[in-house]
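Late entry, written up from scratch paper. The run itself happened at the end of the previous shift, but nothing got recorded in the book at the time, so transcribing now.
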Amino acid sequence: MARQLPPLNALRVFESAARHLSFTRAADELNVTQAAVSHQIKTLEDRLGLTLFKRMNRSLLLTDEGQTLAPAVTEALGIILSAVDRLHRHDQSGALTISTMDSFASSWLVPRLSRFQRLHPDIDVRILTSDTLVDMVRDNVDLAIRFGHGDWPGLHIERLMDENVFPVCAPNAITEDKPLNIPADLKRHTLLHDDMQADWSLWCESMGVTGFDVRRGPSFQHSNLVIQAAMQGDGIALARGALVADLVKSGQLIRPFDFSLPSNFVYYFACPEANIRRPKVKAFRDWLFEEVASSAWLEQQ
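Output as recorded:
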């Protein structure tokens, strides 16, 4: 037959009363009534079939049995509390594993990450990049930043920011021979294609640009590659705003036209439901939304 432990709460009350040799002081420490302490001690004594305290007129003494039990309970509770403290410290610090797309990590997240590290130097961020969804529980991922429709069952999902697409190019891509004053001037330029993004036909159709094959030009499997090609002056890219915001702001890329085409996809913050209550996940989540709010200048143009 398996041995049964006495109720943990009764042992906790006993440890406090034994340490103080006072039901009153134990009640104050545990924030309960003296009657509640007396009840828990009686429950423990009845469970053990032993008397643990000698109740004197104005004092309380441990019996021989109580003196035997008290140090063992104190040590056991101390071990439990130490383990819980270690768990809390690990949950508040240590590695934070984030899954996101390579393009978003390199163009948006990594350039801003040092600000999070300065605020939380005890949290080591580990970034995993993938263009496909990962099993966050199986792969031990704390949170993810994804681009899609937000239909991921079983996860805590929050809309992070909307996205739009628009043409960008290097400043030297526009010359007297190849101006870019009106959308129809795109016919004179090489169009760069992002296989993961809306195609040029949708943008040109929205602007009423016709008369040339918008499918011509090199294509790239990853968004950061098409952005790199645009920065080199290889052509005009139809880029996602979040990925080129900093480059446009710094002047490394320019927007020849103001018109933006809303994307069908949205950026989302996602994590397992239980993770949103973890301190380091919440710290990153709060910082992430603050960063989005502070970098929303592009959406206002």
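The CA atoms of residues 168 and 204 lie 14 Å apart.
(Scratch paper discarded after transcription.)
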